[in-house]
Amino acid sequence: MLLIKNAFTYAPNFLGKKDIFIVHGKIAAIENVIDLPSLKCQVWDAQGKIITPGFIDQHIHITGAGGKHGFGSMTPEIACSELVQTGSTTVVGLLGTDGATRSIKSLFAKTKALTSEGLSAYMFTGFYGLEPTFITNSLQDDMMFIEPVLGCKVAISDIRSDYPTDLELVRLLRQVLVGGMLANKKGVLHLHLGNLDCKMDCLFRLVNDYQFPISHISPTHVGRTKALFEEAIQFALLGGSIDITTGASKYAEPYQSVLYALDKGVSDDLLTFSSDGNAGLDKLDENKKLIGFRKAPINQNYLQFRELSNTGGLPIEVALKPITSNPARNLGLKNKGIIAVGADADFCALTEDLTLTDVIARGQIMMEDSEVKVKGHFE
Hints:
The protein is of the alpha/beta class. The chain has helices spanning 80-84, 104-116, 139-145, 166-183, 201-208, 226-237, 254-263, 300-310, 316-319, 325-331; strands at 2-10, 14-23, 26-31, 42-45, 50-53, 55-60, 88-93, 120-126, 149-156, 188-193, 217-220, 242-245, 271-274, 280-284, 290-295, 347-350, 356-361, 364-368, 371-372.
């Protein structure tokens, strides 16, 4: 049990100053004042800090990625403490271009490892291509029988993709949908968007010609170019969720893209951030010559949220949505991204200027006063 006292609570909507009682990793009560003198319960005084839902990163390379300059350019796995320091209490891991040396089974193992270390980790099966990279015999079976699998990743509009046809994408969507129905999951097809001229053409055809429910179609890297983002806005105006990458693949600062989309009439419930963190990036000198490699940052979701509020002027409850309630809704995680009775006890604590100081995941204090308290098993 854990009792949080004196927290200015954003759920992400503002609830006011509240006490929050946690039992077995779940929120049991939210009241103006909770006193439990008869219970031997850990008490954590938030001292008037801002308390938000734990942040969600729905596209991050937890087992590493990269490799476009040979085996030596592959990035390593992410450690639990690295995620804690960014406020990411829930992550969705996935493969990138490489579906050979990066195994879907290793991704599953890392997902389970992070969960055992205190976070909530999920995964997308598949990778850039269409050839099977599933744990079981099919995408539908992965959805049904592998608990952390929330959907499937595939690449479109990219020279590294398999150039999937509309019909091939529909058949993947069917497996995601039916497998999700049978396993009581939402099910999404998570689509990597490259920079080819076809952009999102096939996604509009899936919705308009094949009448596939748009809520199961989840495009990412939509802020790669201005032209692509204009198409993404049209997709969102049809009711689709669009995911803006914060760590790489962006034509402008992600918070500016959010402000632009809102100005164009996009609902603030349909915009999400994800980091693409730990992907392999080139390190270039002043003459654009390759001099090494670097990892895509994993902290930009949090930093772009700060920019949305501090620079963009959005209310905190709106600025929080792209990293809390919106990705939770897109993924179908009903107990994540919110502060409500019955929800998972995932929290971030922030100072008045939105500096992250404390992280609680599934009711356990993972970081306190900017010091990581719980690390991975091998850290």
